Amino acid sequence: MRLGHLMHHNPNPGTAGLTIDHGRSYDVFGAVLFGGRRGRVYRRLAELSGARPGDRVLDIGCGTGYLTRRLASVAATVVGLDPSAAVLERARRITVEPNCTYAVGVAESLTAEDDSFDVVANCLMLHHLPEDLRATALREMRRVLRPGGRLLIGEFRPPANPIGRHLVGALTGPAMEHNPIHLLEPMIADSGFGQITSGDLHPWIRYVTAIKPDTVG
User: Fold this and answer.
1) Pairing of strands 205-211, 194-201
2) CATH homologous superfamily of domain 3-211?
3) How far apart are CA 73 and CA 52, in angstroms?
4) Which residue in 136, 189, 204, 216 is deepest, having the highest Cβ count within 10 Å?
5) How far apart are alpha carbons 193 and 186 in whole angstroms?
6) Which residues on adjacent β-strands are paired with residue 122?
């Protein structure tokens, strides 16, 4: 059985996407996957988010809060959102940062008010959603961002080597093996964001940053 199936076998009825319910296993998997670079990569993602002191940040699909806590080191308050109550229990147990809170919620139907966050971030989340819901989730991210607010998305970048891609698929499943990261920037642009930039973080992450325009257009 694939490791990904072990961690994603329990979908939340509130979303058509997959959820992670084994937080400890996921943290171990993340440490192994990044080969000791996970902390460095996620600190860089927090920097790339543009979050600053005084900002209110939403981390969607936060899992055990690994990115949430790094964002908390540079922002005023951070809310971690995830569809799995079980994984959020672990996030709360291991979080000591006083400016982090967690709540159950789904990316494609956010309960936050319009224009209520300065930064919206997520990492390794979008590929858990069916393709037809990814644009919906991006529009929701845009809705809850204030004008001029910043978006950060980090996604798994499959190996270019076919053997490496096949190995990823054998371990995690087709969503990561065939993750269409070339579609990220066009989807984000189609969702109404501007000033889009992108790049890679070794070993596995493709990131995209964008800005919600100050005016509707």
Assistant:
1) antiparallel
2) Vaccinia Virus protein VP39 (3.40.50.150)
3) 9
4) 204
5) 10
6) 153
